[in-house]
Design brief:
CATH topology of the largest domain: Rossmann fold
CATH class of the largest domain: Alpha Beta
Oligomer: single chain
Number of helices: 24
Shape: globular
Number of strands: 23
Strand order of the largest sheet: 5-4-6-7-9-8
Radius of gyration: 25 Å
Distance between the termini: 66 Å
Strand content: 15-25%
Structural class: alpha/beta
CATH architecture of the largest domain: 3-Layer(aba) Sandwich
């Protein structure tokens, strides 16, 4: 057997470079790059190996370990999981900074390869710089914190272990059902240790993502239920995008006359004016989608994990005879809430279900009602954004930009009030044009996420929607977008704090406290000058007043040669209405009467929750 002597770090890098995939008939690297911040845990061995492969595996230096890994996640999301980025950190705080990013990837079912430095396996020098010591478990390090938030976890204690570990880690990341982040802890001494590796281990390998088909018996059961439906409803989730099943779902809906609603992750499965599109469902949804969900007798959920924001904490399906059919490549998601489960790829499963339905078509009155509900929703939105407010609202800002974007411009949003307003008010002009990270709703995703998305989509404009709270939490990658030549347009909506949580606090009977800056413990109520800050990071920036100034600034941003930040003050109290109830923990006992009233309303809404198997037809 022919061998080559390499350090563990060198062998990992060489193996990564050898992995390939195919996108639209073109062979490309499966791992197109690395985001890295180096410290004593990874600079000596792993960084030394990476430095020699910059043409094949470029390394991008981040400013924060969490944010660079978030950029990696947004990249792979924009690529629909067909390419995977790597993030590497040192030991200690550099490592644990990536734990949040691992959770984001885990919640969103997205692949991400994390390689973190770790302490010495020989332990002679314990404790090393930044080492956390577990008195009762000497082998425990901060690497163990990743166990709960990764799909694959391993610590390399011998060089030859990577011959087994790397393929297994990749298999998890490429598995559409198990997909999620993989973590490899790389102790400093092991990274530097050499081994005679089989040359064959580094052979170029072409990978693909499998499309598992459903069991015919599951399709038969699902078809039998759907064929008897008078008011069927399709829910398009993020898995539709990952499967590339947008066309199949749309064709299925059209052929069968079934209305389609979208989850946050499934947004832009259909364009906003498609006849079968009804709107977004759930807490940050529309009156149109939620009205149909309330009456639907069969709900076919495709590629969604049915998060509480989708189901209104399982209160939106009010028909006591509703039956749930869940199509999902993941067994865990497909079998939730006593669904009639179809475990399989969305594209393949929809095709099989279509074949099994014969000539079924939903009653025309149902689709006609869907159109009426959608028109009423759009009329409401038009009327709301046409009102005069003391300050621009989120909804007005969203619509103003929506009207100006090119059809394929790519939107990035995450936490706070903006995801809800974009989900409700953004009218998608093209399929697959929105990334709202709401699986983990991670504040700080918006800016690095836009950086990663622009790397993945260099020929499209990427627009990042950022509240002032998220901006202050994680903003350094504005500089990254400028320094690396990845232009992003940032819309910074400043409403003076965490306004959407203030809204929740007030709506559940609480007193305004510690959310808006004006209600926090402060000596000085000074507001941040976001323009000066963004300019200091290398971006072009301006502050606008009013919607017309916003429009003009956006036109300038589109023509700019580098990242552009537009800041606008927005109303902290005005919100689009239309979403469903959401369960939160309203106190049973309080000194505030408003809280007790909210608790009574909470008790009343809980009666609508689907808690088990409902009445069968």
């Amino acid at each position: 057997m022919e061998t080559v002597r390499l350090t563990t770090g060198q062998a990992i890098v060489r193996w990564v470079v050898a992995q390939r995939t195919e996108i639209d008939g073109v062979e490309v690297p499966l791992f197109p790059g690395v985001f890295g911040i180096f410290g004593h845990g990874n600079v000596v061995s792993l960084a030394e190996a990476l430095s020699f492969v910059q043409d094949e595996l470029p390394t991008w230096r981040g400013h924060n370990e969490q944010s660079m890994a978030l950029a990696a996640i947004a990249f792979t999301k924009a690529k629909r999981r067909r390419q995977i980025m790597i993030a590497t950190s040192s030991v200690g705080p550099g490592s644990t900074n990536m734990v949040t990013s691992a959770a984001v990837a885990h919640a969103n079912r997205l692949p991400l390869l994390l390689i973190s430095g770790d302490t010495f396996q020989h332990r002679i020098v314990d404790p090393v710089l930044q080492q956390i010591e577990d008195f009762g478990s000497p082998s425990t390090t901060v690497s163990d914190t990743f166990r709960a938030v990764t799909r694959f976890w391993d610590r390399i204690t011998r060089p030859e272990q990577i011959i087994q570990t790397l393929p297994q880690a990749l298999a998890v990341m490429l598995d559409p059902a198990e997909c999620g982040p993989a973590y490899i802890g790389l102790p400093q001494d092991i990274a530097a240790e050499a081994h005679d590796f089989p040359v064959q281990f580094f052979d170029t390998t072409l990978h693909y993502i499998r499309r598992p088909g459903p069991d015919a018996r599951d399709i038969t059961a699902a078809a039998a239920v759907l064929a008897a439906a008078d008011k069927p409803l399709l829910i398009a989730g993020g898995g539709v995008h990952y499967s590339g099943a947008e066309d199949e779902l749309t064709a299925f809906a059209v052929a069968r006359g079934i209305p389609v609603v979208e989850t946050v992750a499934g947004k832009s499965t259909l364009v906003y004016d498609h006849p079968n599109f009804v709107g977004p469902i759930g807490v940050t949804g529309s009156t149109s989608a939620n009205a149909l969900a309330a009456d639907a007798d069969v709900v076919v959920a495709v590629g969604t994990r049915l998060q509480d924001f989708t189901t209104g904490s399982w209160s939106v399906f009010k028909n006591p005879r509703m039956q749930l059919v869940s199509i999902n490549v993941g067994r865990f998601d497909a079998t939730k809430h006593h669904a009639i489960s179809v475990v399989g790829d969305a594209r393949v499963s929809l095709g099989a279900l279509d074949e099994a339905l014969d000539d079924y078509r939903a009653p025309i009155e149902w689709l006609r009602r869907a159109g009426e509900e959608r028109r009423a929703w759009y009329d409401y939105l038009d009327g709301y954004i046409g009102r005069d407010f003391d300050m621009p609202t989120y909804a007005q800002v969203v619509r103003a930009i929506n009207n100006l974007v090119d059809d394929d411009d790519y939107q990035v949003a995450a936490a706070g009030g903006l995801p809800g307003e974009i989900n409700m008010g953004w009218q998608a002009k093209s399929v697959g044009s929105i990334d709202i990270e709401y699986g983990y709703s991670c504040m700080g995703y918006e800016i690095p996420g836009a950086w990663g998305a622009k790397m993945a989509l260099p020929d499209r404009d990427v627009i990042s929607w950022v509240g002032d709270g998220s901006y202050l939490m994680m903003n350094s990658d504005i500089h990254s977008t400028v320094a690396t030549g990845h232009k992003v347009i940032f819309i910074v909506c400043d409403n003076g704090g965490f306004a959407v949580i203030n809204r929740l606090q007030v709506n559940t009977g609480g007193k305004e406290f510690n959310n808006l800056l004006q209600h926090t413990k402060r000596v000085d109520d000074t507001r941040v000058d976001f323009v000066k800050h963004a300019e200091s990071l290398g971006a072009i920036a301006e502050k606008v007043t009013g919607i017309e100034e916003l429009r003009e600034a956006f036109r300038r941003a589109k023509e700019a040669d580098r990242s552009y930040v537009i800041v606008i003050d927005t109303d902290p109290y005005e919100w689009t209405e239309g979403g469903s109830w959401w369960e939160v923990g309203v106190p049973e006992v309080s000194r505030r009467d408003q809280v007790l009233v909210a608790r009574a309303e909470w008790d009343a809404e809980r009666k609508h929750q689907r808690v088990g198997i409902w009445d069968s037809p």
